[in-house]
Amino acid sequence: MTPLSIVPRLLRVAAVLLRYRLDELVDATHLFRPLKLLRPLLGRPSVDVRPLSRGARLRLALVELGPIFVKAGQVLSTRRDLVPQDIADELALLQDQVPPFPGAAAKAIIEAELKAPIDRLYAQFDETPLASASIAQVHAATLHDGREVVVKVLRPRIDMQIARDVKLLHSLGELAQRWHPNADKIRPLDVVGEVEKMLENELDLQREGASASLLKRNFASGVDLYVPEVHWELTGARVLTLERVHGVSSDDIAAIDAAGIDRKRLAAKGVRIFYEQVFRDNFFHADAHPGNIWVDPLELAEPRFIALDFGIMGSLPEADQYWLAQNFIALFERDYARIAKLHVDAGWMPSTVRLDELEAAVRTVCEPYFTRPLSQISLAELVVKLFQTARRFELTLQPQLILLQKTLLNIEGVGRLLDPDIDIWAVAHPVLKRILRERYSPLRTLGEVRKRLPEWFHMAPKLPGLVHDALQSAARGEQRLLADADSLSHQTKLVHRMLHMMGSGLLGAALIISATLLWALAPQHGLWPPLCMGVAGLLAFGWGWSRGRT
Fold first, then answer.
1. What pTM was computed for the model?
2. Using CA of residue 228, residue 229, residue 234, residue 238, what is the dihedral sign?
3. 211: which residues sit within 8 A by CB, 6+ positions away?
4. Strands of the sheet with 225-226, listed across from one edge
5. CA contacts within 13 A on the Cβ side of 83
6. Strongest mean pLDDT among 31-45, 238-252, 483-497, 500-514
7. What is the CA radius of gyration of the chain?
8. How confident is the model at residue 193 (pLDDT cuts 50, 70, 90)?
9. Where are the beta strands (DSSP E) in 67-165?
10. End-to-end CA distance of the chain, in Å?
11. Looking at residue 346, what is its pLDDT?
């Protein structure tokens, strides 16, 4: 039951929705319909909403309701597989800007968090903020050594305000889940959960600093993407101090042209950076709208981007990363049968799905796109439509994939702003193939083996005993090794298979360990001897595994 304490806030939400003539949403809840009689008493919005679309009216209503609702609208704009396109396009225009709080309050928070007077921490601190958002605001400052920095400070008591507003969002989500006719498609409680998780991450500025630090390490050269340095001695959970950078927003085409930057080259570089973050590093900026992605106006020979605001970052489980990369490759090569099979093999769809029907559905979505010139194909739009189609086949996606979809939309939007004729496919395909070739190369595999050697050394002495115990247990009838292992002859064959697997496994482990030791302790012999020995070890593993399964 909805607590009485939030009823006034629910009534305010209903009043705002009515004022902006969002009648279809109010009607769907079956709860505030009588309030429509009070519309003449509710006052008028600051603009005439009658000629506006439903998406524009919803956007303006969320802005009036406050920053947490703005954040919810931003998340909802990424769910283009669930939300109508006209509403998603309008919600994508939401800007998270609110009036600033006093600079004196910011100084007090900094001193409490860093446990020192402000003049000891910074040589100069500007109380007038550079920017202000719903969670935090940013101030300019100068260190005692003369370096310029920016200081991000959480709003006073923002954690309590967010907890209260999230509770309200949960109540609204439960109402929508119960009464909205399309609740099974919109899944309002899932959307609220995404908002809650995003806000929880953004409330820890030390986490944001760690994300910035990792992204900077991934692009250490700074040639393609520059990430400001974190000043850890001036950073805590409520305060983040970063190197101050200067640039122009990636959607300010006039300023980019005035600086003499090659926009076509920059756009292609942006697409490449996205695929490197996702598939090379498995750590990507998930809030890459133009306000957070700047262009360095001083780098003309080798244009580069500058990344800002690291509160929302994404990564994928290793398995999902692999399956997603293979899906992209199959999509680039128009291999619809492989796309269908990959979705099932990845576990994103139940194994009962008919692959021929799924393949036909994928082909139906994709073929109309491939009749256009590749430069006119929107990869982001195609991925969204594939997700919508796949939902008919009980597709289950993790939140990380939804975050990736949002980032793909942002990056493609920035790329087409910089170069309307960019061929996303021509840029992305070779980059992704190169990354996969490097990621799954024999040398990288040997490197992973080398890293796991200590773990294998630790487990190796236990392996014979574990196999012996399992065989004894099976011989005493305490454990059935297979559901149909009723006869003695079958169990004998099974024991032989296990012995083959154990013998070849020990041989393979010995060869790989020897190869690693030879590589580490006798590098003067070159790479080929340990490489051949390592390959022999892998072949021994493969032979034993195949003998064990047949």
1. 0.72
2. positive
3. 283, 310, 311, 313
4. 225-226, 305-307, 293-295, 248-249
5. 22
6. 238-252
7. 29
8. confident
9. 124-125, 131-132, 136-142, 148-154
10. 59
11. 80
Residues 390 and 357 sit within 8 Å (Cβ to Cβ) = no
Quickly state the pLDDT bin for 498 (edges 50, 70, 90). Answer: low
| Cα–Cα distance, 424 to 417 (Å, whole number) | 13
Count of residues in the chain: 550
Q: What DSSP letter does each residue of 353-377 carry, written as one string?
A: S-HHHHHHHHHHHHHHHHTS-GGG-
Q: What is the C-alpha to C-alpha distance for residues 216 and 187, in angstroms, rounded to an integer?
A: 36
Rounded Cα gap, residues 354 and 370, in angstroms: 25
Identify the CA nearest to 329 among candidates 434, 243, 418. 434
Beta partners for residue 243, in sequence order: 149
Return the pLDDT at 318. Answer: 80
Q: What is the dihedral of CA 47, 49, 55, 58, to 10 degrees?
A: 70
Q: Answer with the residue of higher pLDDT: 1 or 69.
A: 69
The one-letter amino acid at 517: L
The whole-angstrom separation of Cα 403 and Cα 400 is 5
Sequence-distant (6+) residues with CB within 8 A of 76 are: 83, 87, 88, 91, 191
Predicted confidence (pLDDT) at residue 7 exceeds the cutoff of 50: yes
Structure tokens at 464: 């014979």
Residue type, 118: I
Which residue type does 527 have? L
User: Quick check: 495 pLDDT over 50?
Assistant: yes
Residue 35: closest CA among 5, 54, 11, 58: 11
Tell me how far the alpha carbon of residue 43 is from its chain's centroid: 41
Strand pairing class (305-307; 225-226):
parallel
Please indicate whether residue 296 is annotated as part of the active site: no
pLDDT tens per residue, range 26-55:
544 455 455 555 555 555 666 676 778 888
Phi, then psi, of 124 in degrees rounded to 5: -145, 140
Buried b (16+ CB within 10 A) or exposed e, 119-158: eebbeebeeebebbbbbbbbbbbebeeeeebbbbbbbeeb
- Which residue has tokens 């974190």? 230
pLDDT of 486 over the 50 cut: no
Unique residue bearing structure tokens 């983040």:
240
Asked if residues 19 and 43 have their Cβ atoms less than 8 Å apart, the reply is yes
3-state SS, residue 249: strand
Sign of the four-CA dihedral 163, 169, 173, 175: positive
State the amino acid at position 407 in one-letter form: T
Select which of 81, 165, 287, 296 is catalytic.
287
Contacts of 51 (CB under 8 A, 6+ apart): none
